[in-house]
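Aim 2, interim progress: modelling of the zinc ion-bound target.
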Amino acid sequence: VTASETLTERLNRGDVIVLDGGIGSELEARGIPMNYVAWCGLANLEHQDIVESVHEDYIAAGADVITANTFAIGRKSFEAAGCGDRFVEANQRAVQAARAARDRAAEREVAVAGAVSGVTARSLAAAKREDRTILDEDALWRGYREQASILADAGVDLLLLEMINSPAFGPIAVAAALETGLPVWLGVSPGFRVNGDRAEPDHTTMIHGEISLESLLDELLRPELQAVNVMHATTDVVESALEIVVHRWNGPVGVYPESGTYTRPHWEFGELSPEAFLGLARGWVDRGAQIVGGCCGIRPAHIRAIRDGLPNLAPQDPFKHSPSRR
Ligand SMILES: [Zn+2]
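Predicted structure of the complex, ligand included:
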C-alpha cells in the first residue's frame, strides 16, 4: 500500500488530516537568506540540510503530510535569479529532502506532497506586466506540465496546487497536475491584494480584486480533484471562504492559513499563538474542514498544538447534505 493510497483511504473514512506549516517562512526563521525573485526556492540548492530539518520538525510535530519546498521554484524566476540551469535539480532535491526527512523521522505514515503554485504563471506574466491577463497558454501548459511531471518522477505522493487564484492560468494548472495521475489538492487564497511588493489584506474582494471566490471555483473545480483547500489566507477570512467552498464542493475540504505579512522577499511573523491557532482550527473542523495545517508564518509548535488538540475524525458537516457537486 502506497502513502497516497493510505492518505486517500483516510480521507474517505473521515479522518482529520494534519498538514505541515510554512516552509519558506520557517527557512527564513532559521537564518536562510531569501532571494528577491526566487524567494525560498534556492534553499534547495544551498541549504538542503536545513530544508530537511524543517521537514523533520513538522513530522515530529505530528504532520500527516509534509510539503516539499517547491512552491517558489518557477523556471522564469530561477532564470531571473541566475539559476535557470538548476530548475530541474532544485525540484528534485526539494523532493529528496522531504523523502529523506520522512525516512529518518517518521514513526507513522507520512505522505510527501509536491507544491505547484501560481508562481509559474506569475513569472510568465511578469514580462507582460502592463496586462496581467495576457498569458501565453502554450507556455502555461509547458510550465505546469514540466514541474508536475518532475515532481511525480521524483516520487511525491500527491500534488498541492497553491495560490491558484486566477482563471487565466488556474484551469491549465489543474489539468496539468491531474495528468500525473497523482491525487491533487487545489488551494485557493482569498482575501488579499498584491500591491507592488506587498501583499495587503483586502476583505472587500476575495481574490486579488479580480474575481470572486465563487466564480473562481466555478472555473477550477473538477471532480477528479481529491480535496479543495483555503490556504495562504488570513485567519479572519478562511471561515467565510470555507463556507463558499463547501457549498460548491462535496469532497474533502481543508484550511491552511498564514499568520503575518509578506514584504518581498521576507515574511514578518504574526502574533498567533499555537493555543489560539488550535482554537480556530477546532472551529474549521466543526465547519467541515478535514485537512488542517498552516502556510507562511505557521510553525512546528502550531502543528503540534493541532495534532494534540484536534479530533481524529471530522464531524459530519452541516453544509454537506447534498451529494451534488457543482
Ligand atoms: Zn503561504
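The pocket of zinc ion is lined by residues 22, 232, 258, 295-296 (CB under 6 Å). The radius of gyration is 18 Å.
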